[in-house]
Each structure stands twice: as C-alpha cells, then as structure tokens.
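Bumping my old thread because nobody answered last time. Still need a sequence for this structure:
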C-alpha cells in the first residue's frame, strides 16, 4: 500500500511521490522484461483494490546496437 493517500494524515509530499512512482514505472515498463514468476493477486479491503505480490521480473539481455560511423 502506498503511504501518500488522502485523508487526515495526508502526506504533504504526495504529489512528488506519485510523480516519482510514475517516472520509475514508465522507465521500468519500457525495458524488455520477462516475468519469471507470476504474481499472487489478492484483494486489499483497506484500500479497496487489488494487490500484486511476489512477482519476479528479469530484464532480457539485448544484443548491443552496432556502432554508427
């Protein structure tokens, strides 16, 4: 669960934390990923949403691009 939600104890840095998470996930998902272990999918009643746990990802090796001349 992310700790920068709304409510009485709202984190003052939540906008920055959301932006950092967005940048991280966009860069991660652009990589050639391979799922080594499927996640366990559950329901979290506190946030009323799904949660993914124990997924294992690996970045697939990519052949280097030839040098440009």
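Sorry it took so long. Here it is:
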């Amino acid at each position: 669960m992310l700790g920068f939600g709304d409510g009485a104890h709202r984190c003052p840095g939540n906008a920055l934390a959301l932006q950092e998470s967005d940048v991280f996930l966009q860069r991660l998902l652009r990589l050639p990923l391979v799922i080594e272990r499927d996640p366990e999918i559950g329901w979290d009643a506190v946030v009323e949403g799904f949660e993914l746990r124990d997924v294992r990802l690996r970045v697939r090796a990519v052949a280097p691009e030839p040098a440009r001349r």
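Helices lie at 14-30. Let me know if any region looks off to you.
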